[in-house]
Amino acid sequence: MPQASTRSLSNRRFVYALFPIICLLSLLSGCAKKEAVIAPKKTVMVWHWMTDRGNAFQELAKRYEAKTGVRVIFELYAPSDAYTQKVRAAAQGGNLPDIFGILAEMRDFAAFIKAGYVSDLTAAMKENDQAWQMKFAPEALAVNEFSEGNSYGIAPGIYGVPIDITTIMMLYNKDIFKELGLNPNRPPSTWEEFIAIGKKIKEAKKQGLVSGFGEVWMIDCLANDFAFNIMGKDKVLATIRGEVPYTDPDWVRVFSLFKEMQDSGLLYNGLVSMVNKTAEQLFANGKAAFAFNGSWGVNV
Fold first, then answer.
1. Using an 8 Å Cβ cutoff, are 15 and 100 in contact?
2. Topology of domain 14-165, CATH
3. Where are the domains of the chain?
4. pLDDT tens per residue, range 3-31
5. 43: nearest Cα among 16, 65, 66
6. Could you tell me the pLDDT band of residue 266, with boundaries at 50, 70 and 90?
7. Which residues are within 8 A (CB) of 127 and not within 5 positions of it... i.e. 6 or more apart?
8. How far apart (Å, rounded) are the C-alpha atoms in residues 167 and 161?
9. DSSP secondary-structure letter at 4?
10. Which fold has domain 168-299?
11. In 3D, which of 14, 22, 16 has the Cα closest to residue 1?
12. CA 223/CA 217 separation, integer angstroms
């Protein structure tokens, strides 16, 4: 995670977003009126959903205050679905904090921009020979950038400041692999091999894949991973725009993969209602053969 920027937060409000399709974490600028003259703030409020990052956030806040004199207060909420409801309610009530997160898709991000909660940061990014912009990987900025002629009707520009990048991955337990008679140094490399392991898990009366499916966004990540591989980026984006129905044969194939996993014995009992913290604990304690999780879970 990068250090806090020395750029003053005083004339902006920020939004923090994670979009399941891309799975990148970002800070997004908020809705201060461009024409208004706003006095520098001495305190900035931040809402976030990753409660396990509390110590890191406090350290960043300490560094930022030392450099700028601006105090940063973090309020952390979990689980993620409750956090999302809190943000939406605050938006409706007009009492959002200075910095907050949107756990949603690009269309929801666009809706927040249209509602006036997010500002275009392009001009600030371009100042001083793109000094601010050059601090970030282009791929990270692209997640929060709307291009010319985008389907959401958003003016082209950069609407977010990345603070870190995550990767989503499938983890496996080597000890359980040994118990199943599998090579612990050879994870499955094909769908058929993956499904075959599920049958072994069922026969051995063990538990398979854990993840935060109960929070929706994790199952959305896995479904989108399947979809991008089966039908490609263009068709997935066409679906989001409403041009391709979920009854399309490719989408039916995506959904059928979950049934194949369930029938083979790959899915942990109660997975549908499981929150991600529970999934991480189960996997860390050796109670599951697989975990679909992200790089944020390395500390578990």
1. yes
2. D-Maltodextrin-Binding Protein; domain 2 (3.40.190)
3. 14-165, 168-299
4. 322 222 223 343 433 333 333 334 443 44
5. 65
6. very high
7. none
8. 18
9. P
10. D-Maltodextrin-Binding Protein; domain 2 (3.40.190)
11. 16
12. 10
Please tell me the pTM assigned to this model: 0.64
Q: What is the mean pLDDT of residues 140-169?
A: 87
Give the residue among 236, 221, 228, 224 at the shortest CA–CA distance from 291: 221
CA distance 94 to 117: 10
Name the band, by pLDDT with cuts 50, 70 and 90, for residue 40: low
3-state secondary structure of 98: coil
- Residue carrying the six token digits 């950038």: 145
How many CB atoms are located within 10 Å of the residue 233 CB?
10
The reply to whether 168-299 shares the fold of 14-165 is: yes
Task: Please write the tens of the pLDDT for every residue from 41-95.
Answer: 799 999 988 887 889 899 999 999 999 999 999 999 987 788 889 999 999 999 9
